[in-house]
Amino acid sequence: MLVMACAGDYEEAGSLGVADNGRYFVDADGSPFFWLGDTGWLIFSKLTQEEAEMYLIDRKEKGFNVIQVMLLHTLTAANAYGDSALYNADVSMPNTGGLKDTAAPGYWELVDHVVDFARRQGLYMAMVPIWGTNVKEGKVTPRQAEAYARFLGNRYKDDKNVIWLNGGDIRGDDSIAVWQAIGRTLREVNPGKLTTFHPRGRTSSTDWFHEESWLDFNMFQSGHRRYDQDTSSNEKHHYGEDNWRYVAFDYSLQPAKPTLDGEPSYEGIPQGLHDPGEPVWTDADVRRYAYWSVFAGACGFTYGHNSVMQFHRLTDTVPAFGATMPWTAAIHAPGAQQMKHLKSLMLSRPFLERVPDQGLLVANGERYAYRAATRGSDYAFIYAYNGGEIHVNMGRISGKRVKAAWFDPRTGHTEAIGELDNSGTHVFRVPGPEQDGNDWVLILDSV
């Protein structure tokens, strides 16, 4: 099952598709592509052309290869130069005239430039056509949505690094006719571009669209709430912070499609989202979401930072969600610098044969004590978030003996443990204290 789409982590964007097993992404020659996304929602309305280029270069240098953005946050959206995206706040009437008597780029000219610049950096632009709030408020009809999607599909049909994120923080059954119109029209006009649906918190695209032919891969939003703050009991998925459970559910479905956490808790955002007085999520929390979901079988992971996703400036009078750090500083937050180690680890061993395997563990643990395990035929990775012991059922990878090592997700460094028999059970003691955030990956390799 090869669905051709966009390029990845290379000199320039080439083509990308879904692997034959339906679980992961591959490039045109069949090499694995690990989705490592960053969230830059408001790039087109907040940044100048030069600022956007600086941001994209930084993200490439930090190992990201996908940038998630909104084309329209609101129907009155304008870019940093003051040019409006639409005529009369009507999505079926894009304003492509640009700014008159000025060298500054118009709204869609800026989008064009950023997409092309990203392509030359080897970056995908995963673009939300219209944020869900506008549709929820009844401001977009199916007819308008179809016309707008046709405009987008035609304008970006030759841009190989475009991925479509239908939806935008909304339930799929809220105005479903609009989402179907966008999805089906984009598939008609852009049959070679990957498309998914970005849902609201604690929901997944699988809740509504898994069997739709326009949906190539699944995306869920594990959200920004702690276990004790969870309000999703009425949703199909009410897993608290256990984002690995979304992957496990998606993994059980047919046909097989890749899945990933497209919006976990952002670094630097208040726990629970709306109260700035709450503690903020840290780089340790980001790592936990990333390793839990990827080891459960996800095709990648999307990182986010509170200040970066909204490109917060100190001059902003009403920052969202209590943001205080300017985006130019927040791009260097610890979590943003650590995500590349996950991608490097996953691509260091045969990736396409990888499967989740909790059978490696004598006991999985619960909540923050949960251990996540994944393996290929001759390697295994086991993640522990809070130190302590890992009890392993040996013999689930090939060979009579294995080499063991500890991988530090903060630095990417590996410390050898030694060789041991690949039989029976073995107890490994995680380096350092038994506490939340002392996270390590146990690596086992066949000798």
Structural descriptors:
447 residues, alpha/beta, TIM Barrel, Immunoglobulin-like, 20 strands, 20% strand, globular
What would your notes on this structure say?
Residues 355-445 form the Putative collagen-binding domain. With 447 residues, the chain is an alpha/beta fold. The protein has eleven helices and 20 strands. The protein has helices spanning 43-46, 49-61, 107-120, 132-136, 142-155, 176-189, 244-251, 283-295, 306-309, 327-330, 334-347, and strands at residues 16-18, 25-27, 32-33, 35-39, 66-70, 124-128, 162-167, 195-198, 203-204, 218-221, 259-261, 300-303, 355-356, 371-375, 379-384, 389-393, 401-407, 414-421, 425-429, 440-446. It has a six-stranded parallel β-sheet with strand order 8-7-6-5-4-12. Strands 13-14-15-20-17-18 form a six-stranded antiparallel β-sheet, with helices on one face. It has a three-stranded antiparallel β-sheet with strand order 1-2-3, with no helix packed on it. The longest helix is centred in the N-terminal third of the chain and has 14 residues, at 107-120.
